[in-house]
Amino acid sequence: MKCDIIIPIYNSLNWVKMCITAVYENTNACDIGEVILINDKSDKETTLYLRKISKQYFNIRLIENKKNLGFVKSCNYGMSIAKSDYILLLNSDCLLSKDAVGKMMRAMQKDKKIGLLCPISSKAANISFPLLPGYNYQSLNTLFEKKFKGKMFDACTVVGNCLMISKECINKTGVFDEVFGKGYTEETDYQFKAHAQGFKAKVLIDTYVFHECRVSFGESDEQLAIRKSHLDIFFKRWGEEYNKKMEKYKKSDPIEFIHKKLDKKLNKPNGKIIDVDTLNVELINYINRLIIDGIDINVSLKKQDNINEVLLFSPIIKDK
Questions:
Q1: Which residues are paired to 316 by β-bridges?
Q2: What is the structure's pLDDT at 183?
Q3: How far is CA 164 from each of CA 2, 112, 129, rounded to the nearest angstrom?
Q4: Closest by alpha carbon to 191, among 223, 151, 232, 237?
C-alpha cells in the first residue's frame, strides 16, 4: 500500500521548506507513491524553490497553476491525478511526525469502511492538543504512540490540515465542493457526503503532527467573512445531522480522553534538555530544524520569554 501526498502551496516559503523536509525525513520511502506539489501561483521565490526541489526527488510531481485557483480546486486536481490507495492532503504549514503516514495507512487498512482519517494536531479545531512543557512535537508523537497505539475515535468533524482519504472513498464520493473556494469547511462537508456513501471518519490519537494554521491567508476581515459564509452553507446542508453527531461526540471526546489518561501518568521527557537564559531567532531555528529531523531536544529557561517565533517545542520554565 502506498500514499500520495498532496500539498497545495501559496507563498510562505519558510513553511513550505519545513513541510517538505518533514515529509521526507519522517516518512518511510516505501510508503510514498508521489508527493504532488501544487503551486497555486505563488511568489517568485517560492516558485523557484519548488522547481529546484522537484528535481531533487524522483517522486515529486510539481503542478504549476497558471492563475490562483484557491485551496479547494488545487486539492481537487491533486485528488483527480493521485493513483495510490491512500491520499494525504497536507497543508504547507503542517509538519509530519515520524511514521505519521505509515500509522495512518495501517489504521485505515484495519477497516475498509474508514474513508477519512486525521491525527491529533497542535492547532486543529476540536482535535487540538497543545505541546506539553518539555516536549517537542516529535516527542509528543512518540508519547501518544506509546500510550494509545492504534486507538481511534469517531470524528465529529475531520480537519483538513492533515487528512488521509482512501482512493475508494474518492472514487465513490467524488471531490470537494468548489463552492468553498479558498477553503474552510470543505473537508467537513465532504465527510458528511462520504457518510452517505457508507464511509466512516476517524481520529487516530496515536499520531500527533504540528500545525501552525492559516499561514498563507491570515486572519483578515475578508477571510473571517468567507469562513462565516462557508459555515452558513454547511449548516444549511448538514445542521441537523451535525448536531446529532456532536452530542454523540461529546460522550466520547478524544481530547478529553487524552487529558484524562495523561493527567497523572505523564512520562517525563527523555530527550536532551539545554539550559539557556533566553531564546533568540537563530537558536529557535536551529532547534526547530533538529526536531524536524527527529532529534529529541528541548530547552529549559529561567523565566518565560516573550517569543514571537514559531516553536516546535514547549520550553521548561524554571521559575514557574
A1: 300
A2: 83
A3: 12, 13, 19
A4: 237
Which residue blocks in the chain are alpha helix, DSSP H? 13-26, 44-54, 71-81, 100-109, 137-148, 167-173, 186-196, 221-250, 254-263, 281-292
Q: How far apart are CA 124 and CA 218, in angstroms?
A: 15
* Domain limits, CATH 3.90.550.10, in the chain: 3-261
The band of 219, judged by pLDDT with boundaries at 50, 70 and 90, is low
Residue with cell 497555486: 40
CA gap 37, 75 in Å, rounded: 10
CATH topology (fold) of 3-261: Spore Coat Polysaccharide Biosynthesis Protein SpsA; Chain A (3.90.550)
Name every residue whose Cβ is closer than 8 Å to that of residue 54 and which is 6 or more positions away in sequence.
Answer: 37, 60, 61, 62
Q: Which three cell numbers stand for residue 73?
A: 480546486
pLDDT recorded at residue 218: 54
Q: What's the mean pLDDT in 26-54?
A: 98
Question: Which residue shows C-alpha cell 516536549?
Answer: 135
Mapped onto helix, strand or coil, the DSSP state of residue 28 is: coil
